[in-house]
Design brief:
34% of the residues lie in helices and 24% in strands. It contains 13 helices and 23 strands. Helix 3 runs parallel beside helix 12 and helix 9 runs parallel beside helix 10. The chain is globular, with a radius of gyration of 22 Å. The chain binds flavin-adenine dinucleotide.
C-alpha cells in the first residue's frame, strides 16, 4: 500500500470508529418495543405471490447485494423460499457506467441483464414492487403491491444523495441540481444525461465533484475525470475538466490518478483538492467553495451520500449514524436483538468501501449465515473483498487497481484495511482488459 492508502486506512479507522462504537452502544440501549419500531405506509391486503414452499426469505433491492443474496442463499439451503423485491423493472448497473462517457461501452453493456432470467436461473421469485413499511413484530413487509410475510428479511436498498452536505437545503435548488447536474452515482437515467452532456459539450468548463465521507465508489469520480477528458481529447473539444475534491488529496489510488491526469490529460484536467462545496447556484451555474467562486458550463455534482431513506421508513436506521446508515451488528448484519432482519450492501454502517465487489462478497457471507441460521447453526465472520479497477485511458483502455480485505480492531471497535491490501497504480492494457472481464464476471454472477 502506498502512503496515501495508509492514510485512507487510518482515516477510515478514525472516521468510522465512532460509528461502530455508536452502533454497539445503541444495541445495548435498544429498548423500544417491536411494535413501536414498526413502520407501516399504505398497505392493502396480501401480495399476490405464490404460496411459500419453505421458510420464506424476502430480499429487498435487486442491486449487487440483493441479487447475490437471493442466488447464494438458495445454494446454501435450497429449502428456503426466496422472494426478491425490486422497485425497478429494468436493471442497469452503476459499476462500469463511467466508461459510457468515453464511448468505450454502450448502454447495452450495463443494461442487457434481466431480473426475470436471474430469478428463473437461480430458482427464486422476482417481485416488481416498492417496499414501503415493515412490522417486525408480525414479520410482515409492506409494499405498494401488498404485504409479504417473511421468516427472514434482508434489506439492501443502496444509498441516497445528501444535498445538505454541500449546503443545499432548498428543494428547488436540489431538484434543479438533480436534473441539470446529476451526481451519476445512483440511477441509470443520470448516466444517460451525463453521457449526453459529454457528447454535446461544445467547450468551456466541465465540473466533476468528489464528496467527503464514505461515499459510493471512492475512485469513481476520479475515473470519471479520466473518461470525460478522454472524450474531449478525442473529439478535440476546447474544454477544461475541473475536478473539485472535497478531500485534501485523492482518496484512493492517488499516484495512479495523478500520473494519468498529468501524463494523459495535462491540457484538459485541472485537479483542485480541499474544495469543499459551500453552496451551488444552478441558475447562474456558480459553485462556491471556502476559497473559490467557480463558474461552470456543465457539471456533474456528487453531493455526498447517506444510507437509503428506506432504512428510516422501516425503523432500521441508526439515529446516531453520521451518514444515516443501518443499525446492525457489524459482524452478523442483523438488527440488534432480531436475527430475522438484516441490512447489507451500501447501506451498512461499517467503513468498508461502498463498491460492487465488496457488496457481492459480503452478500455471499450473509447468504451462508442466514442459510446456517435457518438450520439452527452459526458460521464465522468472513471479510468482504474489495477489488476495484479504474479505467484511466480510453484508447487503449488502460487501468489501475486495488485489492483489499478488512480486519477488525477490537480496541477501536472499527474495521480497517488488512495488511495484505495491494494497490497496482501502474496503468496498463492488461488491467484495462481485466476491468472489462471483472464487469462481465459480475453480471454472470448476478444473473446467470
Ligand atoms: C459511476 C459508478 C462507478 C462504479 N464503479 C465501480 C467499480 O468499478 N467497482 C466496484 O466494485 N463498484 C463500483 N461502483 C459501486 C457499485 O455499483 C455499488 O457500490 C454497488 O452496486 C452497491 O450495491 P447495493 O446492492 O448496496 O446497492 P444498489 O446496487 O444501488 O442496489 C439497491 C437496489 O435497491 C432497490 N431499492 C431501493 N429502495 C427500494 C424499495 N423501497 N423497494 C424496492 N427496491 C428498492 C434499488 O432500486 C436498487 O436496485 C460504481 C458505482 C457507480 C455509480
Amino acid at each position: 500500500m502506498n502512503d496515501n492508502s495508509n492514510d485512507l486506512s487510518r482515516r477510515n479507522f478514525i472516521k468510522f470508529g465512532g460509528v461502530a462504537a455508536a452502533s454497539i452502544a445503541a444495541v445495548g440501549a435498544s429498548t423500544m418495543s417491536q411494535s413501536a419500531q414498526a413502520a407501516m405506509v399504505g398497505t392493502k391486503g396480501k401480495a399476490n405471490l405464490p404460496k411459500a414452499k419453505g421458510p420464506r426469505l424476502v430480499v429487498v433491492g435487486g442491486g449487487t447485494s440483493g441479487l447475490t443474496i437471493a442466488k447464494y442463499v438458495k445454494k446454501a439451503n435450497p429449502k428456503l423460499d426466496v422472494v426478491l423485491v425490486e422497485k425497478r423493472d429494468m436493471y442497469s448497473s452503476c459499476f462500469a457506467s463511467n466508461l459510457l462517457y468515453s464511448g468505450m461501452i454502450s448502454l447495452e453493456f450495463l443494461a442487457d441483464h434481466s431480473f426475470l432470467d436471474a430469478a428463473v436461473n437461480n430458482k427464486y421469485t422476482f417481485f416488481n414492487a416498492t417496499v414501503t413499511g415493515l412490522d417486525r413484530a408480525a414479520r410482515k413487509l409492506m409494499t405498494n403491491e401488498g404485504e409479504i410475510d417473511y421468516d427472514y428479511l434482508v434489506v439492501a436498498p443502496g444509498i441516497h444523495y445528501d444535498y445538505s452536505r454541500i449546503g443545499v437545503t432548498d428543494p428547488e435548488v436540489e431538484f434543479m441540481l438533480r436534473q441539470n447536474a446529476p451526481g451519476g452515482f445512483v440511477s441509470p437515467t443520470e448516466h444517460i444525461t451525463i453521457r449526453d452532456k459529454v457528447r454535446n459539450f461544445e467547450g468551456g468548463t466541465f465540473v466533476i465533484t468528489v464528496p467527503g465521507g464514505n461515499y459510493r465508489c471512492l475512485p469513481g469520480p476520479y475515473e470519471r475525470g479520466c473518461m470525460v477528458a478522454a472524450a474531449f481529447k478525442k473529439n478535440k473539444v476546447k474544454a477544461k475538466v475541473l475536478v473539485l475534491d472535497h478531500n485534501p488529496n485523492f482518496t484512493i489510488k492517488a499516484a495512479g490518478f495523478s500520473a494519468a491526469y498529468k501524463e494523459l490529460y495535462g491540457d484538459y484536467i485541472e485537479y483542485k483538492p480541499s474544495s469543499a462545496i459551500k453552496s451551488v447556484d444552478p441558475v447562474k451555474k456558480v459553485i462556491t467553495t471556502e476559497f473559490d467562486t467557480i463558474n461552470y458550463d456543465e457539471a456533474t455534482i456528487y453531493p455526498g451520500v447517506r444510507g437509503s431513506r428506506l432504512l428510516e421508513a422501516l425503523g432500521l436506521m441508526d439515529p446516531k449514524s453520521p451518514q444515516k446508515e443501518a443499525l446492525i451488528d457489524d459482524h452478523k448484519y442483523n438488527f440488534p436483538g432480531d436475527d430475522r432482519v438484516y441490512v447489507t450492501g451500501d447501506s451498512r454502517p461499517m467503513g468498508f468501501s461502498k463498491s460492487a465487489n465488496t457488496s457481492n462478497t459480503e452478500a455471499k457471507y450473509v447468504a451462508k449465515l442466514i442459510a446456517a441460521r435457518s438450520l439452527g447453526k452459526e458460521i464465522d465472520w468472513v471479510s468482504p473483498e474489495t477489488i476495484c479497477y479504474s479505467m484511466c485511458n480510453a484508447e487503449p483502455g488502460e487501468a489501475i487497481s486495488v485489492s483489499a480485505r478488512y480486519v477488525y480492531d477490537n480496541a477501536k471497535k472499527a474495521f480497517g484495511f488488512s495488511p495484505d491490501t495491494t494497490m497496482d497504480e501502474h496503468r496498463d492494457v492488461a488491467k484495462g482488459n481485466r476491468l472489462i472481464e471483472w464487469n462481465k464476471g459480475m453480471y454472470r454472477d448476478l444473473f446467470a
